[in-house]
Amino acid sequence: MARVASNPLSLPRFRPYFQVSDTALLFKSPSLSPYRTRKFQSIACQTNPLPTQTQPSDEGKVLAEPDSVDDSTSEATTSSVGGGFSESPNKNINRRIAIGSTLAAVGLFTSSRLDFGVSLKDLSAAAVPYEEALSNGKPIVVEFYADWCEVCRELAPDIYKVEQQYRDRVNFVMLNVDNTKWEQELDEFGVEGIPHFAFLDKDGNEEGNVVGRLPRKYLQENVDALARGEASVPHARVVGQYSSAESRKVHQVVDPRSHV
Fold it and tell me: Which stretches does the entry tag as region Disordered (predicted)?
C-alpha cells in the first residue's frame, strides 16, 4: 500500500481523467461566454445552410430591383413629358379627327347648299322642257318666275327639296316671265304675280294654283296629290306675298327651244 501511495509516477496516469473538470470550467469561465454566445447566435440565426453564397445574390437582387424601378419610372416620366402617348396612337387620333372634320365640312356644305345655295338658275337648268312635260304622261308642276323676283329666290331651296323627292313621278317646269316665248302661257294660266305654281294632271289639265310665298307643305301636299293620281289638289287657290308680273323685263327669245 505504501508503495503504491508513494509512487510519484502513478499520478500522471490519472491526469487525463481530470480534464473533465477543465471542461466544466469552460462553462463557468466568463471569458469564454462570448464564444458560447457567438456560437449559439450563429446557430439561431442560420436559416440558410450557405449564407455566404446566397446572400450576395440576394443583395444583388435588392439592388437590381430599385434600378429597374428607376428605369421604368424614368421611361414613364420621359413618355409623359414627351406627350403622354406613343407616336402611333397620336397619328390614329389625328387621322380620325381629320376625317371627322372633313365629313362635318362636307355635311355643312351640303346642308348650306340645300338651304341657302340653290339658285333659280340651278332649278331652271334641271327643269324639264315644257313641250316634253306635256307629252311624257306625267303630272306637271309649272313655275312662272323671274330672276329679279325676291320671293322666287327665297322659295328656291324649298322647291329644290320637293323636286328631289318627286322628280321620278312628276315633271317640274320653269318658265321665265321675262321671256316673250311664254306670253300665251301667261295669259292661259292668268299669271299676275310670281312665283306662280300651276298644278297639271297627266293630261295637262290644271287642278289648281298657288301664288306667292307660302309654307313648303302647301307645295309638297299638292305635288304628292299629283304623284298619287288624285283628281284634285288640297290647295287649289292660295295666294301669298308675291311680286307683280307687271314688273317683268321682257326680252326677245334667243333660242326658240329655250324654256327659260
Answer: 43-87
